[in-house]
Structure formats: C-alpha cells, structure tokens
Amino acid sequence: MSPEPANYAFAYSVLIAPNGPLAIQVARLTDGGCRLTQEDLARLSGVPIAAAGTPAAQPDRRQPQLDQAERLVAETQAQVDGFAAIVRTMRRETNGFGRDLAQSAAAINEATPVAVADLSRITGVMIARAKDSETKLALATDETERLRTKLAEACETARRDPLTGLANRLAFAEAYATRNLDEGPYCLALCDIDHFKRVNDVHGHGVGDRVLKMIGHALVENCNGQLVTRHGGEEFAVLIKGMKLTDATKLIDRARKTIANRRLRNRDTDAPIGAVTFSAGIVAVGTQESAEEATDRADKLLYNAKSLGRDRVCAG
Q1: Cα angle 45, 46, 47; round to 5
Q2: Can you give the pTM of this predicted structure?
Q3: pLDDT at 122 over 70
Q4: Catalytic entry in 70, 145, 153, 234
Q5: Coil vs helix vs strand at 160
Q6: Rounded Cα distance, 74 and 176, in Å
C-alpha cells in the first residue's frame, strides 16, 4: 500500500485486532497471495479512494532500484576499465622506451667508450629501472584483469535470485529496457503460485523454497528459451519475444497445466503436498510502453485470475 495516512490507519486497525471482523475480511481477500487494491481498502474502511492515494500518487513498487552496492560495482567497473587501458598504454610506451635506451647506449659505447662512460652508466641505470617498471606494470595489468573478472562475476550475481538461480527483477528490468523491437512482438506474463502461504504453513519454509525452485525451473523448461525471472516472493515474470498474445497465452497455459498435473510429496516426511498451481496475467507489450505500465496491466489480470478461482491465465 502507498505510504498515506489513511493506509497507515487501515493497517493499524487490522493489526491491533487480528481476530476482528476487519482482519478476518482482509485475511480472506489476501488468501493465496492476493493483494488488496485501493478499491478494497475503500470498501472495507469507508475511506474514499482519492484520500487513500490515487494510482498516480502511489510510489512505483515494481521499479527495480540499484542499491548502493550495485552503484559501487558499476562505478568500480568503469574505473577498472579505465585503469586497465592506461596501464596497457604505459606498458607499451615503457617497452619502447627501454628498447630505445638500450640501442642508444650500445651506440655510445661503440663510438666513444671512454668519453661517455658516465653517460653510459646512467643510461644503464635507466634501462634497469625501465625493465623494473615493465615488470611491475605487467603484474598490475594481470591484477587488474583478475579484478575485472571478479567484478563481472559480482554483477552477474547481483542479477541472479540466490534461491532459484533464475534472473531477478533487476535483470528483468534491464532485459526489458534493452529489448530488440525487431525481434518482437513482446508479451509479459506475471505468474503467482496459488495458496503458497498454505504450503509454508503446513510443510515448512524449506519445502516452500523447494516448491519455488520447482515452479521456476518448470517455467524455464516449458517456456522454450524465453526469459523467466523471479519477480519477488512467489511471483515470476516471463518476458516473451517473437510471439503474439494468443500464442504467448497458450505457451503460459501449457506450462500451467504441466505444473498443475504434478503431484508433489515432502521428501523429508513423505507426506503428500498434492498439486501446486499458479495463476497468471499476460499482456502484449506496446513498443513505447514502459516496464512499469506493462507490469501494472499484467498485475491487474493476475488479480482477476486469482479472483476467478485461481489456476488459470487471464490475457488482455
């Protein structure tokens, strides 16, 4: 909910009376991961929708934000790239400088060995220093390359969900922003596991984590190379390219049916978990549409799928 006074008051009313009528209605509406809309808040509390914050006034809860660590990685990567380029240039110049000095010293010694003894000695010292600098620069270059590799790994890790191994919301945002429109059309599906809280409550969070991984990898297997990301909690986002909405909907629905037909068991206790299903909302992405706009539309359709009984795909 948006950070508005009316919404704080609503949340407070629910929390201070967890067994009260308002809390019971909220629990019923949010069962299985459904979200309360501003219309729900207005209906339950009597607060006008405008007072509770219009959609335009609400902060975008889906916009991925680079945290301080992400910004640091990006800035350091740029610095390392620049430093590596400077080091490589210095190394090339030093190599040439040392070679020229060596040739000059040899010529001087052959021409007038007595008269230029001191100059030759000084030149020899300079050559030794140049060689020492070359060695140090070579070591610095190697260390820079190792650091660049580690930073690349850190950037990759920052774009992976640690539980499922799937791309995360940041990776989704980047893929959406850099999508090649020539490979379109594009569609966006939001998939949310039905009654996931019940799985956690009955079987424990360890089983819940395994269910999340199973659903995520089943989506990958059934989505034919499309980008499947964990969008947060029990929700997955699939960015589908090269398909019209009708075909993309069939793709997601086939994945839904495949997953729904599985019968899961708790491997620790051998207790049956049964079928685990998901609901989905899917939209065709406009060429000029932002990620936030497309996600909001898909989210509304996902909410409709939940409201209609779950285990279904709503397209629009």
Answers
A1: 90
A2: 0.58
A3: no
A4: 234
A5: strand
A6: 19
